[in-house]
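Attaching the record inline, Q. Sequence:
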Amino acid sequence: MNIGSDARIKFYERGEKGPAQFDAGAAAFESSAFRGLQVVTAVPYELSDDMDAVQMLQRSTQVGEYYVMSAPEVFDAKKALSPQYMDIQIYDEEHDKQVVISFKKALYMAFPIDKRFEILPLIQYTDVTDPAIVHMFEHIDGMSTEALDKVKAALKAANDGTALTDAAAVRDFAKQIFCTPAVAGNPAAATATAAAAETDPTARANAKAAIALKVLTGILAMVAAGVWVPVEIVLARPFIEHLMMSAIMMVAGRETGATLFGPAGARCARARGSLVCRLRARAL
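Structure, as predicted:
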């Protein structure tokens, strides 16, 4: 009777080539390396017949991600940007596909207005010499005539239907959107001052809401027109749970040697028996 054949090798470990690889020594097993590391997979641990197997190296991990919507740093200043230049594409885990998050949708969700319809200072600049404002003005001034004409036409509706005649008018429109009323030359200063002096709370709230709406629509209009804008929106997914696999890395290589374990079993015939265990030590 033979309960442990010399040729018995587990297929999920080495497959049908297992016996030949065992006879070939450590070199055959090192061939299954990944970037210089030998990879050995862990088999799920069976607790009992009526319970699911447990993967000993698996754990639940909390991770977070964030994405930034921002204007490009390098672009052709003579041309208008694409109307979708602020949109981003991210992976939707729930639907298992890539989805586009539009700047318009993100801005509506993140627009910084408090309960009093006050525009928070996240997108308001107090100095026209700020590098972000200067960069925006440089894009407007550096556009070709054809590109600037398209921008002026696209911004007409957001400018209460009034046509913008030249680059200076586009700059004034941008200043009205991105600079606080305290900035000299801002067309919104008079409206803001009147709203602050209004004694009727409802009228004051309505005036401030109108300014906030103008800022919102102005930003969207400038992005749609392809003008570089000094705005960034951060989208965060702080609570993501993944099932992660651990990896155990150990010293390997020929200098460590190798001990190979082969099939083991027992044989008995009548009154005589023997125990068979094949080991092969390799000092390399």
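Residues 201-225 form the longest helix (25 residues). Residues 68-239 form one domain.

More tomorrow.
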